[in-house]
Design a protein that fits this description.
Layout lengths: L2 H7 L2 H13 L3 H8 L3 H8 L8 H24 L4 H12 L4 H8 L3 H8 L7 H21 L1
Helix pairs in contact: 2-5, 3-4, 7-8
């Protein structure tokens, strides 16, 4: 099934829910947590497996958008460059050039670092932001100890 067909099958509220998730740059899991619903329930709304989205879920989603859209845009702009550049910046801040060490600090495998360096893949915005916060925490903790 192609993407346009699945979009056509979504109700207005279901499509709005998908659009809010995408605008905020959230993974399905993170969005479900923020909406205080289970992942299967969110999936049933965003893939059109239910007739409608409850009003309380839509209210929460719209509130999340209103409160977080500016921050989401700032995050999107911050990471609007090749993944290899982001990695170089993190490696410089952390004082490492070793893929294995960088991978260990970020909590990923070396092969992932390799794919990111080649700009083959990149994490979603919420993961990028999480990795960036990890780097900042390590850098700040290192400064405090010196």
């Amino acid at each position: 099934m192609n993407r346009s067909k699945s979009k056509a099958q979504l109700s207005k509220e279901q499509q709005e829910l998908v659009d809010i998730k995408n605008t905020l740059g959230l993974r399905h899991q993170d969005f479900a947590i923020m909406l205080d619903i289970g992942l299967p329930r969110l999936s049933s709304y965003t893939y059109g497996r239910t007739a409608s989205v409850p009003a309380d879920v839509m209210k929460t989603a719209r509130q999340l958008l209103a409160e977080n859209s500016k921050m989401s845009m700032q995050i999107r702009e911050k990471f609007a460059r090749p993944m290899s550049e982001i990695l170089d910046e993190w490696a410089e801040k952390l004082g490492t050039r070793s893929d294995a060490q960088l991978a260990a600090l970020l909590g990923v495998v070396s092969m992932t670092i390799n794919r990111w360096k080649k700009n083959e893949t990149r994490p979603d915005l919420s993961a990028l932001n999480r990795y960036d916060r990890i780097v900042e925490l390590i850098v700040n903790n290192t400064r405090v100890r010196k």
